[in-house]
Write a structure and sequence with these properties.
Helix content is 31%, strand content 16%. It has 237 residues and is an alpha/beta fold. It has a single domain, classed as Uracil-DNA glycosylase-like domain (Uracil-DNA Glycosylase, subunit E). The chain has a five-stranded mixed β-sheet with strand order 4-3-5-7-6, sandwiched between helices. It has a two-stranded antiparallel ribbon with strand order 1-2. It has a two-stranded antiparallel sheet with strand order 8-9. Bound molecules: zinc ion. Zinc ion binds next to helix 4.
């Protein structure tokens, strides 16, 4: 679904001081689409993203917004992923901001980084069938079909518009959405492996890193964020 034309109220969801100064389009999946997935009652509108600084060097792809109008770019509330990515990039000396605040987002954009959610049309903290305590049936029946539809509706167009030089998928849902656009990506790849691929989508041919969604969750005696940092250290070099 193409994003509709922006309206005056669209800017209110995203407030990176200095980073956002014009209304951005917001995304909706059509009502017909939504009947396919139990649990999606109405299109959870999401005010979209700030204007990127061109050229975009790396697009980070996360999961889904934790609440309507919230998430990575929304500074009025803490966002786990913004906090984690700030910590990772600070340790790698890619930013200098001491907190995941407006200054961090400004540096993030100035560095040519950008962030999008893989799925726009599920605005809850828990995404069906993915993450801790996931139910496989939910993944098959809701999570994967919704990710496929959302990737086709929004993500493909976003990647084309942003024209990034590199793409970084943070965790399983981001990779699942990219696999919907490029089915030959290895279905057995694991985020802790830090594997790289050539992403070939709609005329875009760029390196893709598949790494972990950064968090404190332990895997083989390390925290997931340590895997993310290790993989990104090489990828951003
Ligand atoms: Zn959608």
């Amino acid at each position: 679904m193409p994003a509709r034309a922006p309206t005056a109220e669209d800017g209110r969801g995203v407030r990176a001081r200095g980073a956002v100064n014009q209304p951005q389009p917001r995304y909706e999946c059509s009502r017909d689409d939504l009947f396919m997935w139990p649990g999606v009652v109405r299109p959870p509108e999401l005010h979209a993203y700030p204007t990127p600084r061109q050229p975009v060097r790396v697009v980070f792809i996360g999961w889904n917004p934790p609440k309507p109008y919230r998430g990575f770019w929304f500074l009025d509330e803490h966002d786990n992923l913004r906090g984690e990515l700030h910590t990772v990039l600070l340790r790698l000396r890619r930013v200098t901001a001491h907190a995941p605040d407006g200054w961090f987002l400004e540096e993030f954009l100035e560095a040519g980084y950008y962030f999008v959610h893989a799925v726009k049309c599920w605005a809850k903290a828990k995404y069906p069938g993915f993450g801790r305590g996931a139910v496989p049936r939910d993944r098959r029946n809701i999570g994967e079909p919704l990710a496929r539809a959302c990737a086709a509706a929004h993500l493909c167009e976003e990647l084309r518009r942003l024209a990034p030089k590199r793409v970084c998928a943070l965790g399983e849902l981001a990779y699942c959405a990219l696999r919907a656009l490029q089915p030959d990506l290895d279905p057995k790849a694991r985020p802790t492996e830090g594997r790289r691929f050539e992403l070939s989508v709609d005329g875009i041919n760029v390196p893709l890193l598949y790494t972990s969604f950064p968090s404190s969750s332990p895997v083989r005696g390390r925290q997931l964020r340590d895997f993310t940092r290790g993989h990104l250290e090489e990828f951003l070099a």
